[in-house]
């Protein structure tokens, strides 16, 4: 098992990662009957996209002796209705603090775009990537 998810009432869950014991909470978004006081489950999906990409970029850099010291990502999740689902995720990533040449930058970005979350979402959710 990976995690344990418990309903806390009022459209909120507690999610515990079993290997580490770390816990996060989710809350339904304001536009879907919730309080919006924590990540919604769909926020976590969108956010995990950027997190996975950055992690895979880090692994690529470690394996290829590339210094990876700077990365910030902003994530925009766009919902659709009928059925309610994630329609689009935009990830804007600033890698400029690494001072890589163009060849290295393209290789690191390609590694990130090959992450498991991208591969899971592509074809089901529109993905847009903006790199600085």
Overall description:
By secondary structure, the chain is of the alpha+beta class. It has 3 helices and 6 strands, in the order E-E-E-H-E-E-H-H-E. It has 2 domains: 3-32, no CATH class; 41-131, GMP Synthetase, Chain A, domain 3 (2-Layer Sandwich). It has helices spanning 41-63, 102-113, 116-121; strands at 3-9, 12-17, 23-27, 72-80, 85-94, 126-131. It has a 3-stranded antiparallel sheet with strand order 1-2-3, with no helix packed on it. Strands 4-5-6 form a 3-stranded mixed sheet, with helices on one face. The longest helix is centred in the middle third of the chain and has 23 residues, at 41-63.
Topology of this protein?
Elements: E1 3-9, E2 12-17, E3 23-27, H1 41-63, E4 72-80, E5 85-94, H2 102-113, H3 116-121, E6 126-131
Helix pairs in contact: 1-2
The number of distinct structural domains comes to 2
How many DSSP H or I helices?
3
What's the gyration radius in Å? Answer: 17 Å
Largest β sheet strand count, sense and barrel closure: 3 strands, antiparallel
Strand arrangement in the largest pleated sheet = 1-2-3
CATH architecture of the largest domain: 2-Layer Sandwich
Distance between the termini: 38 Å
CATH topology (level 3) name of the largest domain: GMP Synthetase, Chain A, domain 3
Percent helix range: 25-40%
Query: From the helix content, strand content and strand pairing, which structural class follows?
Result: alpha+beta
Low-confidence stretches: none
According to DSSP, the number of beta strands is 6
